[in-house]
Amino acid sequence: MLSSLPSRLRLLALRPASQTPAYQVTAEKVAAAFGRSTSPLPPYEFRLIAPDDPEMEAALARADVLIGSSVPTEAVAATRGALGLIQLTSAGVDHLVPLDWLPAGVELTSASGVHGPKVMEWAMMTLLMLHGHLPHYAAAQRRHEWSPRESSTIAGRGLLVFGTGGIGKAVADAGRVLGLVVTGVNRSGAVAPGFQRVVPTLLAAEALGEADFVVLAMPLTPETRGMMDRDAFARMKPGASFANFGRGPLVDQEALAAALESGHLGGAVIDVATPEPLPASSPLWAVPGLIITPHVSCDDPETYIDRTLDILVGNLHRRAAGLPLMNRIDRQRAY
Amino acid sequence: MLSSLPSRLRLLALRPASQTPAYQVTAEKVAAAFGRSTSPLPPYEFRLIAPDDPEMEAALARADVLIGSSVPTEAVAATRGALGLIQLTSAGVDHLVPLDWLPAGVELTSASGVHGPKVMEWAMMTLLMLHGHLPHYAAAQRRHEWSPRESSTIAGRGLLVFGTGGIGKAVADAGRVLGLVVTGVNRSGAVAPGFQRVVPTLLAAEALGEADFVVLAMPLTPETRGMMDRDAFARMKPGASFANFGRGPLVDQEALAAALESGHLGGAVIDVATPEPLPASSPLWAVPGLIITPHVSCDDPETYIDRTLDILVGNLHRRAAGLPLMNRIDRQRAY
User: What is d(CA B48, CA B43) in angstroms, rounded to the nearest whole number?
Assistant: First the structure.
């Protein structure tokens, strides 16, 4: 399975740790995704397996495509079968790096973009909450305190989004719907859909000082780990606010807490934390002006797996046509 | 000043209790509003007065129009001057009822509709928060607990709005933007802009049992006081959620707390409470699944007074033309 498809596709799906039916790749969902395909694909067989199944080696040896999130990296590294493609059910790949286990002939693709509609709604909510001082009101409620603060309508304010991929674009879309001026940050500064302006990472410091809302939506890599540190928060405009839609370790949590406690930041909403789940003993829970949600901004049980399988089906067609795959993870950059 | 305008208009504005400059009616804002008028108005004089000024009686005696919120009802009842119009800077009139102090020749108009853009954004935020389980997460944060719950995208769910006036319309607009199916409730069941369906109050019980989101946006009157009681909450669909954009006393707060504590309701966000400010001793602060904000959903310091004065200017033109006034308060119904 290199630049064409075998006459019969063998699909192997990993049963996720979560027992929620919505996040299971099932024979029915695969059949539906193949059914949505507008041009024909080879017949396929489908098998579901637990990541710790003792038969994993044999199952991998006779699979063309592996689908899932908790990839058994050692078994994949050792396989000598026809495996040509791993379709992740996650947008991020940070739980699998470094990618030195990935055999040379196997391509890895993510579920990036699948989360678009849900993330866009979550971003609209988060931006309106930051603008409307909800982090302040939540903290005031913990103190049993009626403490009004003014806010007008949100339009015309500045939004800076770190990351211009699938989740960044959804955040940018939310910003545009609300009438914000949306700037993106990516490595090269290349134009990206949904953004009115994009600046390269190296020049982000100035944009950081101008934005009313700063949102993280980039992958966790060695370069991005801890990027929101004391210096970065200090560069933000007094009263500006912050959200994290990416990964917990992008943020120095002590620096975030200090920026909120000093009143430098107007508020923050984080959907990711370090570690997850955040333990009850974490001082982060009680930081003023901080709302914590438990990594749910991307959840969409009604459509998540269907949309991931649509990416897979699209990539099978691309394979058959010899085209580069969508959402292909770069082995070195690991995103 | 009955169905025409005097050759020189005498405007008297009440200084509000809040010292926030944004909520002051000033000579500059009046001049700007008259300047925005597309057809000519008589020249005017403008005076600002504190509601407890000892010269109130004399000032009222030589005013054609009174502008403000905390109307000195006794002084107005006693006035024998040319006063013909009171333009409120509030959407609600419940703080002035019964309206038996209002002289027969004086019309009373509200600022209803002024809050539209801000309320629409607040309603979008609130609906997305209810859908996204933010009341649950805020309560979980108080307990230092990482406790994910699933939610998909919001579209297609049912929103029931009690009240189809200015604030109700803004809530309906927010619902339509989010793809909700929006039903309104008003006294007569008359069609109202922004609503896909309107049912009369007497038939609201069935709609109450079908909605995913129930929002109050109606005035406080003897008929609506306490309308959300134990029976009403019990009629709501299990897991449905609730918001109050109207007035605190529309809700039996003990019944709301019980419906949340039992888990019957999925969550609630209230921007109004009884009393206001809610004292620190209130048990409401700690009710699970409840987010309380301090009566800020309608605040819009950047445009509030300007938009209120635009209503006044529009009504001066209507007076000159002998047309019925916009936002006229019915003396019996008091809304």
Answer: 17
